[in-house]
Amino acid sequence: MNDPRPRTVLVIGGGASGNTVTVLLRRAGIAVELIEAKPDWNVLGSGITLQGNALRVLREVGVWDKVRESGYAADTVGLATPDGTVVHVQRNLRTGGDDLPATVGMQRPRLQEILCEAVRESGATVRLGITAEELLQDSTGVTARFSDGTEGRYDLVIAADGVGSRTRAMIGVNDKPEPTGMAIWRVPAPRPEGVERTDLVYGGPCYIAGYCPTSENTIYAYLCEDNRDRASIDPASYADEMRRLAAGYGGIWPEIAASIADPAEVNHTRFERLLVEGSWHRGRVVLIGDAAHVCPPTLAQGAAMSLEDASVLAELLGKEQDWGSLDTLLTGFYERRIGRVRRVVDASVQLGQWLLDGVRDADAPGLMSRTLSVMKEMP
Predict the structure, then answer these.
(1) What is the mean pLDDT of each successive set of 10 residues along the chain, which is 379 residues long?
(2) What is 8-45+55-70+108-177+272-375's CATH number, 3.40.50.920, 3.40.50.300, 3.50.50.60, 3.30.565.10?
(3) What are the residues whose beta carbons fall under 8 Å from the beta carbon of 130, sequence distance 6 or more?
């Protein structure tokens, strides 16, 4: 006999994957409470490249029209020399299907705004400035004790609290992200006239120099170099550091560099690798998104993998009427996702490693093509 009680889920983390799984579970009639540590529910950052398979999930969530209106779609990518000469333009694979563009560049905070609006409209309970301090499990559910002194009882907890997930360690998963040896500088900038796609330079002062339109008026630009100890770089010097690195590039880079003035707008992060093996759950607590897997952005598939996690988990939970066998369901979720995610993580790390090692005859285009071809298949 089916349990007549409404099924209840706690989602920890209000980023892309947490917001997405919340909306999709609410659509399935499941009661969801979402908690987010940041009081303003904000995500900082300059920009994000969403490939077609990420857009496919955003369409499922119901926000594709807003994403399309707010972002900048492109089907091609250019390859250039350090002086700015474009030597090749190639068509990107439409991994979300032929009815979606290959990529959409967006301002990351705008994507967050759109997803937060969808969560509010879904009717989920949202509590900001709150963290889960303790999760007590038994055979029928999870009692969560929160940082404000309250507690709640849930059938399932979904940890979408990012690469630095506190929940991951709390449930006994000891995997931690490891640096790959490379780091990235990112900054938003005005869109120079004529920029209508991503252009990439492999070489020059950095391993990769690139930019991506994020709206009719904006782009985000990025430079990838060797990982340096962040403690050795004064945040007040971030704009100076990025301008210094950008000075080695021609084309529109001088225009981009001239706009880099506020160090607070410059983001510097290291590339990391994480892939939790074996399972992504312990009892009735399951990890998704960056809490379970992280990879360098060399394939621009990190966001897509997180969004796909949310979609697949919501599908499985929405179809299953009897949550008494959650262990089987969550094991099935992991088994459905691990091969696809491992392919992306390994390929993303390999692309960066070839650059670090200076391998000139690496089949990077072939690896990218083989990996992205699989992404066109439904997750």
Answers:
(1) 70 98 97 97 88 98 98 97 97 97 97 98 98 96 98 98 97 97 97 96 97 97 95 95 98 98 96 97 98 97 98 95 88 98 98 96 95 96
(2) 3.50.50.60
(3) 35, 36, 37, 146, 147, 148
